[in-house]
Write a structure and sequence with these properties.
The chain has 104 residues and is an alpha+beta fold. It has four helices and three strands. The chain has a three-stranded mixed β-sheet with strand order 1-2-3, sandwiched between helices. A hairpin with a 5-residue loop joins β1 and β2. α1 packs across α3.
């Protein structure tokens, strides 16, 4: 699969997930979360969603746990908004890049 198509799919997934987190999730654990970027596998069956969470390490772990529990809901949002053969399984990872740049 072409890298351009993978990049477009990753960007579409990022947009849907970030809007769903902002507008549709009511979990109190998930606050101050920003989706920085998404990596998709070549077969579009798996997606690593990199998120940045403002707050201390406890807050970050709590938000990641909340996002993992909401993964099925977010996958359903992707399925209804993006026309692809397979809905990717979401795996959330903490992006430390923003935190490191603030420290510097």
């Amino acid at each position: 699969m072409s890298t351009r198509r993978l990049e477009k799919a990753a960007e579409a997934i990022r947009a849907v997930v970030s809007m769903a987190i902002l507008a549709d999730l009511n979990d109190p654990r998930i606050r101050d979360v920003t989706v920085t970027y998404v990596e998709v596998s070549p077969d579009l069956r798996h997606a690593k969603v990199h998120v940045s969470v403002m707050g201390d390490e406890t807050r970050q772990r709590l938000s990641l746990r909340g996002l993992q529990s909401a993964a099925g809901f977010l996958q359903a949002k992707i399925a209804e908004r993006i026309e692809i053969r397979y809905t990717p399984r979401l795996n959330f990872m903490l992006d430390q890049g923003v935190k490191r740049s603030i420290e510097v």
